[in-house]
Structure formats: structure tokens, C-alpha cells
Design brief:
The chain folds into two domains: 170 residues, Rossmann fold (3-Layer(aba) Sandwich); 70 residues, Hypothetical Protein Ta0175, Chain: A, domain 2 (Alpha-Beta Complex). Helices cover 38% and strands 19% of the residues. The chain contains seven helices and eleven strands. The strands form two sheets. Strands 5-4-3-2-1-9-10-11 form an eight-stranded mixed sheet, sandwiched between helices. A three-stranded antiparallel sheet has the order 6-8-7, with helices on one face.
Amino acid sequence: MKVIFSDFDGTITDDEKIPKDFFSLIELCESLSTPLVIVSGRPASWGNFLMNYFDIDSCIMEDGSISILKKDSKIFRKALLSDQEAKDILNLKNWCLKTNHDLIYSNDSVDRSYSFGLLLDSINGNFLSKLKLKIQEMNLRSYETSQYLYILPGSTDKWTAVSEYIKDKGINLKDVIFFGDSINDCSLFQHLPNTVGVSNVHKNIHKLQALPKVILEGKENRSVYGILNYLKNQTSVHINTCNDNLKK
């Protein structure tokens, strides 16, 4: 594989924490000379943090709205949506603020540039209907987690951002792999030929509109541990295959 893409929450984090095995994943990617790219729904500030403190090639944040790249030891942000969509997101957020004072925003909404989240328990049925109509009229998109309704640009998702990265690098789709576990990973599960769901993907299986090609099983394959086990196994198989070919 020439690039390893991975979701962050649940796929790398374990119980909402970054486990020490994340360092092992980074070291493994370095040993394979394979860039690691984080593809996350988190705000861009998290991308800056990851790029500053870990040896990561790039980060795609806010579900594909922002690409964060490193060049000559400097970090650059690139918005992947139109100026109009950025305005539409802000206008809808302001409309929500004015229309319903009881709404509770996700803790990270203040750090988001081109998206925001609303606590589902703070949205009554009547307002939700109006909000979804607004989202549709403005050609935006949304998805629900167990706690929040996230509202995002309609033209970007994880796939649009990853496909742009792949095109810029001149890489074939078959030469990349993606690890994920959640609803906002579906666009990558759908479009990429090599996708793996770490074992905690099972809690979201019934919500996924597209499934990963490989679904890992067992507690030992949850989160980053599943990524490590899968990559080590694939590397071992590749080495053994090469040795067999040499013997022939």
C-alpha cells in the first residue's frame, strides 16, 4: 500500500482516548515507508494538533471540508468547499441561534470552521422538521450520531477529500487502504476498493449505507489495535509471498 487512510474517533481512539499503540502505528507506517493520513470529522484544530505532535503526512478534517498539509516543516490549511457553502453553513447556524434558544451545541462546535453539531436531546420534533427542510433547501447535508446531529456542506465528504488527495499524488485507488468504524465513513467504504472496519464497527453496522470490504472481529481488533493487527498480518503475508517467489 502506498497510503494508509484512517478515521480517528473509534478507529484510532479507544474509549475516547489516544492509546499508546497509536505510536506503534506511526512507527509501523514509517517502517513501511507508507504515509498515514487521518480522515476525521473533528475540527481543523485537531488536525493541527496531530500534525504538530505526530509524524503524520496529512489530515482531512470536518468530514472532508478541510485538508491540512505539511510542506517544508510548515502546516497549511486548504478549504475544500465553496465560499457560498461556507456562508450557507454560517447562515444556518445563525438561524438556529435565533429560532431556538434551547439548542445545545456540540462541545467542539466553537472550533469548527465549516460545520456544527446539535445535541439531539435539545431538538424538539417540530424544530427538527423545519431544520431538515432548511438543510435540504440549502443543499447542505447532515447525519446523526448517538448524541448529535451534525450539519455539513453538501459538496464535500470524506470521499471527495480523499479522492482529491489521491489525484494530487498520482496514486491508483488499489494502492490505498482505509480503516473506519462509523456512519461518516460510508463514502469511503463505498468508493475505495480496500477498506477495513475495525471490530467496533459492529455497533454501527445497522446504520451504514455501505460496508467495509473487510470487517474485523474480536475485542483484540477494536480501534487502533485492529489496524495494527491487520497491517502486520498483511505485511507478513507479503513478505512470505515474496520469499516463496524467490525460492521458485
